[in-house]
Automatic annotation (TrEMBL):
Positions of the catalytic residues: 189 (proton acceptor)
Modified-residue entries (N6-(pyridoxal phosphate)lysine), positions: 189
Family as reported in the entry's similarity comment: Belongs to the DegT/DnrJ/EryC1 family.
Transmembrane segment boundaries: none
Family matches, as InterPro entries: DegT/StrS_aminotransferase, PyrdxlP-dep_Trfase, PyrdxlP-dep_Trfase_major, PyrdxlP-dep_Trfase_small
A GO biological process held by the record: polysaccharide biosynthetic process
Listed Pfam families: DegT_DnrJ_EryC1 (PF01041)
Record-given protein name: Erythromycin biosynthesis sensory transduction protein eryC1
SUPFAM superfamilies, sorted: PLP-dependent transferases (SSF53383)
An example molecular function term from Gene Ontology annotations: pyridoxal phosphate binding
Keywords: Pyridoxal phosphate
Source organism: Candidatus Raymondbacteria bacterium RIFOXYD12_FULL_49_13
Coiled coil region boundaries: none
Length: 374
């Protein structure tokens, strides 16, 4: 049948493909009688740490909690500055504000849209305590440079890895060059459950112990509490994620193949620029984001695609500092210009991409991009 509609997500297709494995784990949890910090959570945490190559992995309620729990475990507090790029999902900055920190926003790189290294360097002050690089759209930020800067200034590095599970850089792994890695498992991420979940992984036993307590009402031992929260990853989600984790590498390979199909099919389309894949990096294409060269084309291209059944979206058309009411009395500062961030916000279009998308759907989307007339 000829394609006339392309969905942005393939959640139900993915569930259908591995239904028996997911259902078996759900049944296992239901019949175990243990649903919160039970054996399935322990199993998934062990599998995740092994997969990530870190000593510890701690399941938490969502990716935002993962970020602020990591910040809190590192001792970040009011008056401390964290630096991130202004073109990210809102939660990166939000986590800083939850912790009471000052969120310093800097520009992104012209091509990769990850944090700009020169702008990052220029934004450091004696109050800076942490860099929070975002592996945006599924490609790692330049962690070696970031680690070097962090070492020079004695800063923590917290990777926002919500979009880049299974990615790696040119000879560096996620988690290798940072204090903590924070990940989200909300359904639309590359590894996602049917709801919310997240995790922190780290090689630091102190961070592991602190987050384990913080996520569980400050309790490491029954009836004994210090200040904390409730931010646990429950066992049903852990079971779903455990079933899905076995497929992540194959899913990423498929995402990369579909991305390649887009890139080949869209080569030479003169009104857009295509994603930049850095040599040696494994870009996991959480999102396949093209940018219109003329910002005046973006909304029109988006409408053209939507009108023709392609559920294209934008990530993110309103940068953090452009949100209404920013910064809502929170401690925030822009350092340097945000010219690249603003260009990205005004020109980005995300095309549908997931392991379950068919080649025909990718080809239809390519055709619809090509049929756009200014
Ligand atoms: C999704 C996302 C988060 C937040 O994750 P939640 O699980 O939705 O709280 C944080 N940072 C980035 C870059 C994200 O894409």
């Amino acid at each position: 049948m000829a394609v006339s509609k392309v969905s942005f997500y393939g959640h139900v297709r993915q569930y259908t493909n591995i239904k028996s494995e997911i259902d078996a784990n759900i049944q296992k949890v239901l019949m175990s009688g243990e649903y919160v910090t039970g054996p399935m959570l322990k199993q998934f945490e062990a599998e995740l740490a092994k997969y990530a190559g870190t000593k510890y992995a701690i399941g938490v309620a969502n990716g935002t909690d993962a970020l602020w729990l990591a910040m809190m475990a590192l001792g970040l507090k009011a008056g401390d500055e964290i630096i991130t790029n202004a073109n990210t999902f809102f939660a990166t900055a939000e986590a800083g504000w939850i912790t009471g920190c000052k969120v310093v926003l800097v520009d992104c790189d012209e091509k990769t849209r990850c944090i700009d290294i020169a702008k990052l360097k220029a934004a450091i002050t004696p109050k800076t305590k942490a860099i929070v690089p975002v592996h945006l759209y599924g490609q790692c930020a330049p962690m070696r440079e970031i680690r070097k800067i962090a070492d020079e200034h004695k800063l923590f590095v917290i990777e926002d890895n919500a979009q880049a599970i299974d990615a790696h850089g040119d000879n560096f792994k996620i988690g290798e060059l940072s204090d903590a890695v924070c990940t989200s498992f909300i359904i639309q991420k590359n590894l996602g459950t049917f709801g919310d979940s997240g995790a922190v992984y780290t090689n630091n036993p102190d961070i592991d112990a602190k987050i384990r307590k913080l996520r569980n009402h400050g309790s490491a031992k029954r009836n004994c509490h210090s200040f904390g929260f409730n931010s646990r990853l429950d066992d049903l989600h852990a079971g779903i994620l455990s079933a899905k984790l076995k497929h992540i590498t194959a899913w990423t390979d498929t995402r990369r193949a579909k991305a390649k199909r887009y890139t080949e099919g869209l080569k030479g389309v003169d009104f857009i620029t295509l994603p930049t894949e850095l040599p040696g990096y494994r870009h996991v294409y959480h999102l396949y984001v093209v940018e219109t060269k003329d910002t005046a084309d973006r909304d029109k291209l988006l409408k053209h695609l939507n009108d023709h059944g392609v559920d294209a979206k934008t990530h993110y058309s309103i940068a953090i500092h452009q949100q209404e009411g920013y910064p809502w009395g929170k401690d925030a500062e822009i350092r340097g210009t945000l010219a690249n961030v603003e260009k990205n916000a005004a020109s980005c279009v995300s095309l549908p991409l997931y392991p379950e998308i068919t080649d025909e759907e990718v080809d239809y989307t390519i055709q619809m991009v090509k049929s756009y007339k200014k």
